[in-house]
Design a protein that fits this description.
Radius of gyration: 61 Å
CATH superfamily of the largest domain: PAS domain
Structural class: alpha+beta
Strand order of the largest sheet: 2-1-5-4-3
Order of helices and strands: HHHEEEHHEEHHEEHHHEEEHH
CATH architecture of the largest domain: 2-Layer Sandwich
Largest sheet: 5 strands, mixed
Mean pLDDT: 77
């Protein structure tokens, strides 16, 4: 599942808060466990001292100390009152062999008591170890032991039992407020993370909206990010890029319009097809050749399988290489030269092909016109040469006649005229002038 930035931020903040709450709760619970064990030790020690004091008063020198302890109602009352403590399970006076001399439960008098764990050793451990010891099992009985002395002689010990199960129940009672506090902190953290994400992600939403508008071809997109931070700098950079893109798009639109205008005015029929065989562009000449050609149409559905352009397109798309020119007949439209050119991107991937159908009849007419023009040009050069060859003698004759006219007009003698005529050309002899 894809997670957005907002979801990741909320999840991250919530995870951090949950981790902190869990760690603090464990530390708090560990401290409570240590305090509970200290309180249990204090109660057990107080009870043991009370039993020790009563036993010291009961035992008389020379008498049987065990019988005196067992028969003393005051000691029995102290032992039986231990059961009213929250976590004390028993209190007993045992001899050196571990047999109960006086027990809080009279039915256990005279029976050997199994030795439990040492409460003082557990108290010497760390708080976390104490918490683990309390919750790691179904519960265990720990004992606080104090030697029972008569003078310097030890006649037994006072043993007070403490149950970790009872301590655990007491700790469980304090978990309720801690759990409520943890849930409250979690709710506040989620709400705070959502608000913070909304504030921090607003510039990103604005930038994404601007990019969407740019992708749709809108010009002059500007972002209003008046912030003195990295998002503000990013907005300024975006505005600069947007202005540059708008200028480039405007220039490119003009160039594309000019190119389309030039292609539409071509006598050749031109169509551009994408790799899926769909028409992307057709000029008017191609529409006249293929009446059903339109942008978005598929050659596979528009043309039959034996159509020259359909076959040429399929072969070019299959081979990824340009083909043609090849002659092809288009019914009443006559014969055409068809060719296909591949269009590749900078990475060499095929992005489309260009289909071209050239009218050979028009080319024949153009070639005939060119040949006729060449003949006319040759005839013009020949005429210019003939005119040159005829014009030069005529010019000479005109010059000679003009000279004769001038000479006869000045009333010169016929002899002079004859000499002049003889000097300028072989002409008929003139008659004498009156």
């Amino acid at each position: 599942m894809r997670l957005g930035i907002k979801s990741k931020q909320v999840l991250g903040v919530t995870s951090i808060v949950v981790a902190v709450v869990v760690v603090l709760s464990v530390l708090h619970l560990s401290r409570l466990a240590s305090v509970s064990l200290d309180e249990s030790r204090a109660r057990a020690e107080l009870l043991a001292k009370a039993v020790f004091q009563r036993g010291h008063d009961v035992v008389v020198a020379g008498a049987d100390p065990y019988a005196a302890l067992r028969a003393d109602p005051g000691l029995r009352s102290i032992l039986e009152s231990s059961v009213y403590s929250t976590d004390v399970t028993f209190a007993a006076v045992v001899n050196v062999q571990g047999v109960a001399v006086a027990h809080a439960d009279p039915s256990l008098d005279g029976q050997a008591l199994p030795l439990g764990g040492d409460l003082l050793k557990l108290l010497d451990r760390s708080d976390l170890s104490k918490l683990i010891a309390i919750y790691s099992s179904q519960g265990q009985n720990l004992e606080f032991r104090q030697p029972l002395l008569i003078g310097d002689a030890e006649i037994g010990s006072i043993r007070v039992g403490v149950s970790t199960l009872l301590i655990r129940q007491e700790l469980d009672g304090s978990l309720g407020p801690a759990l409520v506090s943890a849930l409250g902190a979690l709710a506040v953290s989620v709400l705070g993370a959502m608000l913070l994400a909304q504030l921090l992600l607003r510039p990103i939403h604005v930038i994404r909206g601007g990019l969407t508008r740019l992708g749709l071809g809108e010009f002059g997109v500007q972002l209003d990010l008046k912030q003195n931070d990295e998002f503000g700098e990013l907005g300024t950079f975006f505005n600069t890029v947007s202005e540059q893109l708008s200028a480039d798009r405007t220039q490119m639109a003009g160039q594309v319009a000019n190119l389309e205008s030039a292609v539409e005015r071509l006598e050749d029929s031109v169509a551009i097809v994408n790799p899926h065989g769909e028409v992307l562009f057709v000029n008017p000449a191609m529409r006249a050749l293929l009446p059903g050609a339109a942008c978005g149409a598929s050659l596979g559905t528009m043309l039959p399988a034996d159509h020259p352009l359909r076959q040429l397109s399929d072969q070019t798309l299959a081979s990824r290489r340009s083909r043609g020119p090849l002659p092809a007949t288009f019914g009443e439209s006559g014969e055409r030269l068809v060719m296909a050119h591949t269009i590749n991107d900078p990475n060499g991937e095929l992005v489309g092909i260009m289909l071209i159908a050239r009218n050979t009849e028009y080319l024949s007419q153009v070639q005939s016109t060119v040949r006729y023009s060449r003949k006319l040009a040759a005839l013009g050069r020949l005429s210019a040469g003939v005119a040159h060859e005829v014009k030069n003698p005529l010019n000479a004759m005109m010059i000679h006649l003009e000279l004769l006219r001038q000479q006869f007009g000045s009333a010169r003698s016929s002899t002079s005229a004859r000499r002049a005529v003889s000097a300028h050309g072989d002409l008929a002899e003139p008659r004498a002038l009156a």
